[in-house]
Please model this.
Amino acid sequence: MRVLHFYKNYLPESMGGVEQVIRQMCVGTGRLGVQNEVLTLTRGKDLRPFEFEGHLVRRVGLDLEIASNGIALSAFGELKRRAAECDVVHYHFPWPFMDLAHFVARIDKPTLVTYHSDIVRQKTLLRLYQPLKHRFLRSVDTIVATSPNYLASSAVLDRYRDKTRTITYGLDKSIYPEPEPARLDKWRTVAGTKFFLFVGVLRYYKGLHILLDALAASDYPVVIVGAGPIEQELKAHASRLGLRHVKFVGALDDADKVALLTLCYAVAFPSHLRSEAFGISLLEGAMYGKPMISSEIGTGTSYINIHQETGLVVPPSDPQAFAVAMRTLWDNPALAQQMGQRAEARYQQLFTADRMADSYAALYRELAERRAGAR
Model:
């Protein structure tokens, strides 16, 4: 069974949540005999294919980017050639150029699309894109929603319920590095022994301005891991508020990130818009047994974090409510520990990479067998 994944970004060049999920899909299904290949775009000059954790990565050069929509004209031919050699094409939505490439390349293989998120911000461009989007979603064989919450709340997915199923994301803790004592000591020196942690790309929908506003009247230490387009804006906001207890440590490698996940007291995840469809770093917090604070935005974040069970869920864009939640966890260590234990148990029950891989491998076989039967 050969599967081709097509998405605009991928590791190690880009470290976002969707890229991490594709990695986990490839590694997990690879253990079940699936040969995975990822076709992606790059800003670099080196277009040579390379092996990455047991699967092949091919890249084409990025020509243009409009509203986060990467465009590469050479991808049309490369997608056609790679698809001809595979059994299933696995798309990752949203990426409008991908929809166009699907039709230009005249893909005639079993297809599925993992629907990672609605398009939320680009309202004007979205109206222009709507016809292509719905033509693409009608054309694929199966759509995968990433949580029952997202399927229930997405107006787009509601139109395709007859061909949509839910497969949640999963993570494999064994592929995360074990933090060595010296690294743990380094981060204890930087962050202390009790702190809240945020991990993620610093984008508009992550709601970090809400977290900073929530800290205005407190001195809870917070470590913010990540870089992104609004990094300087957030640092300026923290400076205006006088938040000396907030540390921006930039983008970190997995070893340092794991050290901070191991040491932190709780995970703060203030995303306030539906662009945050799931929250991989929130799930990483659960995997490491940490209590969580998140906002109710009708997506997978509230499937990971169950209010009063694995953490606290507050209204979106409400700094005061977020501050109260932080104080509740900070002042009640026993409650925080119990919530963290339940979060880890929920991860083991629902969100392991093995569970995700089993579901996708079965879906790949189903799609291939359905096409063979039709022929």
